[in-house]
Amino acid sequence: MKNSLAVFVVCLFCQIALGQNTARIPLHGQVVNTSLSIESGHVMNINANARTFIGAGGLFDILAKPKDTLVFTGMAFQSKKIVLTEKDCAEILFTVPLELVNNQLKEVVVHKDLKVKTLGVGSQAIVDMQFEDDKQSTAKNSAMYSDQTIKYGTDFVRIFKDIKKLLRKKDDVKEEEISDIAFVAYTKDNFKPDFFTKTLGLKEDEIDLFLMYCSNDPESKRHVDPDQKFELIDFLINKNKEFKKSNVVQK
Questions:
Q1: C-alpha angle with apex 196: 191 to 200, nearest 5 degrees?
Q2: Strand 42-45 and strand 94-97: pairing?
Q3: Which of 41, 33, 73 has the alpha carbon at shortest distance from 216?
Q4: Per-residue pLDDT tens for 32-55?
């Protein structure tokens, strides 16, 4: 009786172990867009710490299994993150629709001699004001655009918080998707391109992939704050070490 029980326990343990370590199989996929053929970009399996390139016709191949997280990035389309399902992995050709990047330039006009006669009722009006004369004597940080604010840029932290209020009653998936976008946009607006290409040693077309990789770490959400900029630098440097260890699959 004891021997039978021991055999049963061992078999059960083996089944659980095999279930947790399901082998990854080749996933054949294609990224598509209704108006443009996508010919380049990156696909990364964050769970497997492996990445590959998007080739001609938007085709790609990568090892994956259900519940793996794939990240798609490229110069021509908006980044996207997908958690694979059983159905996705069973597809003969897994199709991923992507939206193109909106490259419309936003014109920013700064009036140096603007005089404000009255202040708004809320405190945000005061926060939004720019006092350029006071900033002339402030030492500039070579890694970031500004010590406290994004100079002439978009306040992604404020946008992120406003969007979260609007989506608070909706499902968690959409709120998580917004937080990824906010982290990527906030980080790119707070650092010069040289920080990514020279300090971190990334290629230009790897920057978005790296930031999406970072955004998948829950710790990244804690650094979307003006008071956490040096912590953000430390976080990016450490994540870059992990990113550089990822297996690059050549097609």
A1: 125
A2: unpaired
A3: 73
A4: 999 889 999 999 999 999 999 999
